[in-house]
Amino acid sequence: MSLIEDKFAKLDTEHAPGQEGRLVSGMAVGIGDTLGGTPVDFSHGDVNPAAFAPPPTALEAFIAGEARGGSQAYTEYRGDRTLRGILSERLSLFTGKELDGENELILTPGTQGALFLAIASCVVAGDKVAIMRPDYFANRKLVEFLGAETVPVEMDYLNTKEGSGICLDQLEAAFKAGAKTFLFSNPNNPTGVVYSAAEITQIASLANRYGSTVIVDQLYSRLLYSGVNYTHLRATDIDTNNVVTIMGPSKTESLSGYRLGVAFGAKHLIARMEKLQAIVSLRAPGYCQAVFNTWFAEPDGWIEERIRQHQSIRDDLLGIFLAVPGINVRPPEAGSYLFPQLPKLSVPLYDFLAFLRSQAAVTVTPGTEFSPNHTDSIRLNFSQNHSAAVHAVERIAGLVDRYRA
Amino acid sequence: MSLIEDKFAKLDTEHAPGQEGRLVSGMAVGIGDTLGGTPVDFSHGDVNPAAFAPPPTALEAFIAGEARGGSQAYTEYRGDRTLRGILSERLSLFTGKELDGENELILTPGTQGALFLAIASCVVAGDKVAIMRPDYFANRKLVEFLGAETVPVEMDYLNTKEGSGICLDQLEAAFKAGAKTFLFSNPNNPTGVVYSAAEITQIASLANRYGSTVIVDQLYSRLLYSGVNYTHLRATDIDTNNVVTIMGPSKTESLSGYRLGVAFGAKHLIARMEKLQAIVSLRAPGYCQAVFNTWFAEPDGWIEERIRQHQSIRDDLLGIFLAVPGINVRPPEAGSYLFPQLPKLSVPLYDFLAFLRSQAAVTVTPGTEFSPNHTDSIRLNFSQNHSAAVHAVERIAGLVDRYRA
Predict the structure, then answer these.
(1) Residue A25's pLDDT is what?
(2) Measured distance CA(B87)–CA(B107) in Å, rounded
(3) Which of A240, B57, B200, B331 is most buried, by CB atoms within 10 Å?
(4) ipTM score here?
């Protein structure tokens, strides 16, 4: 295999969420009948009106942006200056720490764009990067694309009541071994756990001690369930030159179709990210940038109602999963992911997922996308029509019983 | 300087088009009075109604896309399947060669996104990549970001009447020296020259002989002036596994604010590009993708009228430049760029450009963005309001005389 073939083999998207349509059906034949019901694609949230549509003001903001013409189409590579001013105030308020919109903030094509730019601005080939297991599936691939080496840090989320269960000794060992960058999501994707204040404080203090940069993906930090305390890493005493925070309106706010994200933090890293964005995609789509005007400025009560609806779906789905013998799941404290661990099955995980699609009209993402250890887990994005999601999870429970080892 | 500092120093955007607002003013003091007139920013096209607005159907197509909801927001990473089917037919007709929309086409965030993905899918650190001088400023930076080495190929556009004046001996020498990738724009950015049929045929035959991949950026291939013949590289006898063509509706069609581009060609390279897109920006903005429905389907006569208007501006600006002693310029055969070579000035190029901004309200891009040899040239994107462009070029002519050495 040539160098470049090897490089791209590591970026395989065959089982990535949303790519199921490109999967070539396997030979495996399922047992028993098809279960009827509304098809549900748990690989991503449903942004249709019957589930969770964008805020009503988003499209208007886009149309107003298009009408502004050239100044909105051709912004600086880091994004429209006026918008960066507005967003820096809102993000400063949200995270509890001052933010300079002129130098410490960049608008990107989605949080995926922000993640790529942030990592590529910290890491060169041969570097070591600490990443969590499990965590967002692209993290590992980003590090590998850059020719860097991942140093995994485990989290014992299933046996932890408060916080993520991150193994801080492993994180310190990674820093000691030379990892100068640590990348993690909080709330964690795929488990929905929120790191405790103590964990975040200790991450900050380890980063300061070893002079490491921390990139924290806070994509779901607005969707917190009742009673959950959230600690913003950037508001701790972490060295401000060593932290970049990533967010975006694609999930809680259902604005994925506009491809918008932000990264904010260390000025020298934001400057690098802009240079790189200039050659990767020029800028976040100009007219779409205008939709940021509506972010953190949704109609009164809109976010609260959205959280309430997600919490109610979460509770119903948890109830179904927990009634199935052998299924183990941590109740998510934030976001819209469930990451149940399944009992031992009579078929391999990818076959089981193919049966879920063909026999139950349900699409989920295999745990192996998030960690090589999680061959027994599946991820569901439950930002779906409530009743369709409940019936789909009942079908999953049915097939778990059917294919139980 | 650390490895990563060095890497990003090569990606400097200080003098890149559109970034002039971030330039810190120098100390140089200009001679004489300020010249009055409508400010013109020639660093990019003007998409406002007084100049060249998007086709009237674009916004409607976006709104229809948004209304489709989830299926338009969450397409495959390579873009919406139905749209790829539609576009493959239109691009096949346009380029004169069959195209399989399922496997040979990817939708990207702008042609910038397509360029990045295409190069990164062909090149690993240490490789050699042949690029033209002059050519689009990002080409060199993309190669350097990947840790590869550029092998420059010159073109004698000022002394060539038909075709670009590419030095095919240099291209062959680059291939002999191990360059497995050749990247060029046709029509050329910044000069507006179109490669002759003989040149394109010889590029194809050299690529076949040395087994090299050619990435051809055809961004301006719809905006051809009267009497110009255009040869699509992919329609020659070049090995179809070794060619990727890049286009997009950002320029001629003024749709830059939607961030849309396409790459089409070798199936294995398109597959790599999709894997990389998945971690760099996920996909071209979903709702924006719907605007592709209007591409190559503009209202009757719309493109023809647009070409006519650009040709008329081109002729007027050429007339002004050619009347200035010492200015040398090749009449562009396509696109909306002029790349005049200026006479020897009494001040360095960057100071002259600063005086153009402060004394003449005119922004242009320095030739050094396109080739280190072009310290005496400037690029103008003349997709502007006709009369404002004429008066702005008269002011440029005035300052050339004022600062003549």
Answers:
(1) 59
(2) 10
(3) B200
(4) 0.96
Neighbouring residues of B393: CB distance < 8 A, sequence distance ≥ 6: B317, B320, B321, B380
C-alpha torsion sign, points A267, A268, A272, A278: positive
Contact B287/A22, CB-based, under 8 Å? no
Percent of chain B with pLDDT over 90: 91
The pLDDT value recorded for residue A229 is: 97
Query: What are the domain boundaries of chain A?
Result: 3-54+301-402, 60-294
Helix axes A267-280, B110-120, angle to 10 degrees: 90
Distance CA B116, CA B141 (A): 10
Q: Architecture of domain A60-294 in CATH?
A: 3-Layer(aba) Sandwich (3.40)
Q: Do domains B3-54+301-402 and B67-294 have the same CATH topology?
A: no
Looking at residue A278, the DSSP 8-state letter turns out to be: H
* Angular region, B23: left φ>0, alpha ψ -120 to 50, beta rest: beta
Question: What is the tens place of the pLDDT at every residue in A228-241?
Answer: 999 999 999 999 99
Question: The tokens of B291 are what?
Answer: 């605007």
Find residues 96-155 of chain A whose CB sits inside 8 Å of chain B.
Answer: 109-110, 112-113, 115-116, 121-125, 138, 141-142, 145, 147
Encode B138-168 in three state secondary structure. Answer: HHHHHHHHCCCEEEEEEECHHHCCCCCCECH
- The CA-to-CA distance between both ends of chain A, in Å, stands at 37
Which CATH architecture best describes the domain B3-54+301-402? Answer: Alpha-Beta Complex (3.90)
Please tell me the CATH code under which domain B67-294 is placed: 3.40.640.10
Contacts of A148 in chain B (CB under 8 A): none
